[in-house]
Amino acid sequence: MALGLQALNEQDQARFDECWAAQRDFTRQHLGAWALTCCELVEANARTDFYKGLATLTRGALSELSELLDVPLTKDSSR
After folding, report:
1. Measured between alpha carbons, how far is 45 from 51 in angstroms, rounded to an integer?
2. What predicted TM-score, i.e. pTM, was given to this entire model?
3. Which residues of 4-42 are buried (b: 16+ CB within 10 A; e: fewer)?
């Protein structure tokens, strides 16, 4: 993220596009593969409201990231 902001500040569109693509790929391949399932499991198994709330907050942040990057996040179907 910092490299992308630096590229914008330097008006280097090509480097910004490269950083943006890397962020999208990371989100699709890694966060998109397990993050929603993790949040769901925490919400279902947390013993305190703090962790339930943290999972809900994380789910919301992931939803915003997904929309911003136009990368769908899916639940892990292997469990």
Report:
1. 9
2. 0.74
3. beebeeeeeeeebeebeeebeeebbeebbebbbbbbeeb
Neighbouring C-beta atoms of residue 54, cutoff 10 Å: 15
CB 20 within 8 A of CB 6: no
Give the number of other Cβ atoms within 10 Å of residue 77's Cβ. 6
| Residue-level pLDDT, tens digit, the chain, 79 residues | 788 889 988 999 999 999 999 999 999 998 888 999 999 999 999 999 999 999 999 999 999 999 999 998 887 644 4
Q: Hey, how many other C-beta atoms are within 10 angstroms of the C-beta on 71?
A: 17
